[in-house]
Amino acid sequence: MEHFTIATVAEQSADFRRVLWTGEHTQLVIMTIPPGGEIGEEVHDVDQILTFVSGTGQAQVGGQKKNVAQGDLVVVPAGKKHNFVNNGVNPLVLYTVYGPPEHADKAVHHTKEEADELEEQGKDEPPTSD
């Protein structure tokens, strides 16, 4: 059994992205977006559910914009262009579930730049099912 006090674990991580758990069909990831930062506009082939732990920001999904804060949850269906921007003065902390997994198992990306570089190099690929 994996057990996380998820809000506490997320709050304690300063990393841009940290994969906590990867299963066959889903993946649990925590993220911290610094003030003025963003995830970056992207489109996934997987579904994504994001829950916000602290901070404030703006969700941009499929051309719609919505302010987000602690306790909010946003669903990003596969194929939808999206971005999440920290427009507050504190880090925007969240956890997200991808289905199926989107990142390498146990990946830790300290910054967005590191995450982008590893993705471009093909070093952030999810595990494949045999």
What is the topology?
Blueprint: H1 6-12, E1 17-22, E2 27-33, E3 47-54, E4 56-61, E5 64-69, E6 73-76, E7 82-86, E8 92-99, E9 108-109, H2 112-120
Antiparallel strand pairs: 1-2, 1-9, 2-8, 3-6, 3-8, 4-5, 4-7
From the structure above, extract its key features.
9 strands, six-stranded antiparallel β-sheet, mainly beta, three-stranded antiparallel β-sheet
Describe the fold and architecture.
By secondary structure, this protein is mainly beta. Helices cover 12% and strands 40% of the residues. The chain has 2 helices and 9 strands, in the order αβββββββββα. Strand 1 and strand 2 form a beta hairpin.
Instruction: Describe the global form.
Output: globular
Distance between the termini: 23 Å
Mean pLDDT: 95
| Low-confidence blocks of residues | none
Strand content: 35-45%
SSE run: HEEEEEEEEEH
**How many runs of DSSP E, i.e. beta strands?**
9
Q: Tell me about the biggest sheet?
A: 6 strands, antiparallel
Strand order in the sheet with the most strands: 6-3-8-2-1-9
Helix content: 10-25%
What is the CA-atom radius of gyration, in angstroms? Answer: 14 Å
Number of helices in the DSSP assignment: 2
* Alpha-beta classification: mainly beta
Short overview:
The protein is mainly beta and 130 residues long. It has helices at 6-12, 112-120; strands spanning 17-22, 27-33, 47-54, 56-61, 64-69, 73-76, 82-86, 92-99, 108-109.
